[in-house]
Amino acid sequence: xxxxxxxxxxxxxxxxxxxxxxxxxxxxxxxxxxxxxxxxxxxxxxxxxxxxxxxxxxxxxxxxxxxxxxxxxxxxxxxxxxxxxxxxxxxxxxxxxxxxxxxxxxxxxxxxxxxxxxxxxxxxxxxxxxxxxxxxxxxxxxxxxxxxxxxxxxxxxxxxxxxxxxxxxxxxxxxxxxxxxxxxxxxxxxxxxxxxxxxxxxxxxxxxxxxxxxxxxxxxxxxxxxx
Amino acid sequence: xxxxxxxxxxxxxxxxxxxxxxxxxxxxxxxxxxxxxxxxxxxxxxxxxxxxxxxxxxxxxxxxxxxxxxxxxxxxxxxxxxxxxxxxxxxxxxxxxxxxxxxxxxxxxxxxxxxxxxxxxxxxxxxxxxxxxxxxxxxxxxxxxxxxxxxxxxxxxxxxxxxxxxxxxxxxxxxxxxxxxxxx
Lengths: 227, 184
Known about the structure:
The complex is a heterodimer.
Chain A: H1 2-11, E1 15-18, E2 20-22, E3 28-35, E4 43-49, E5 56-60, E6 73-77, E7 80-85, E8 89-96, E9 102-111, E10 116-125, E11 133-134, H2 138-141, E12 147-148, E13 153-156, E14 159-163, E15 170-174, E16 188-189, E17 192-195, E18 203-210, E19 213-222
Parallel strand pairs in A: 12-19, 13-19
Antiparallel strand pairs in A: 1-3, 2-11, 3-8, 4-7, 5-9, 6-7, 9-10, 13-14, 14-17, 15-18, 16-17, 18-19
Chain B: H1 2-11, E1 24-27, E2 32-34, E3 43-47, H2 53-59, H3 63-72, E4 77-82, H4 94-104, E5 110-113, H5 118-123, E6 127-128, E7 130-134, E8 140-144, H6 154-163, E9 178-179
Parallel strand pairs in B: 3-4, 4-5
Antiparallel strand pairs in B: 1-2, 1-5, 3-7, 6-9, 7-8
């Protein structure tokens, strides 16, 4: 237990990165919490799924906005379905530069198939002052993130049929939790993805991933889908 | 009333307010327990893995033990369950588990050892902790998290309401914590 914890702590060290190598106070820049890859370990999406824990960040100065997450992966271990990352990824937010800098206190859960450990890390960032200049992280911090899109969602028997915006492998990630059965298969039927709901919800909210591209959806559920 | 009916309708597909599956299981102190042994009583099932940080978060400050003791005093049967498979986090044989329960000052009536995961899968236990409450009619009246990750303990709230003859206001919540360490 202790050995694996230490090994893990060495492998995974969150960094606070910025798209700019210097900026003026008052400039709005993009910062990110970079979680590195650690073989066999995964951390969690903002809805962790059937187990896990969402990453909690306390910012100084205080910031209550929502971090932007990249497209997550699905983990099914022992029949339990979770959403997260076993790869390097970055959680982003904007920051209005101040001389005092930015601090983050991060709490997150990391798991392998056999065990979980809770981690706490403190990171900080102070930018040199000067005309804003791109840093080596700029490209990664400006890479496209899931965008809002409008899709049609219909009840089809005891399933929900989500109209897909394009071809390719598709997966729906619910957020908030408890909208669909996370462990139920999500078969694709033509241009529709079939989900198994957990009750009579009025809307379907979450992230739809098609051919690796993420779409944020918040759609009313319509009755009477054609079978 | 309308609101309550609507809420029940929402929850029916998740098998709430449906009969709790019956089971027979072995405990760490070498006994055999059956759900039917506790007919006409409230029963709490608590999934546990003493190495999971979320279980530690309940046991280290004594919160879980205090809850066990409070409700045992009101006639509620508290059954802890460990579904960690042999070789996985949280697994202990009967003797080691007994020693651990003493160390933890557990106030549960029994610790069920479920290394083959049969009971865990029967109830759909996903996390540690993961909590279920069964009422004296044998229906599941609560399934989900131990708390709201802050101050509100859902199990305490549900038992308080149910023992006062009231419907449980939040019968289903998203449980969180380590995944139950089943043998795949």
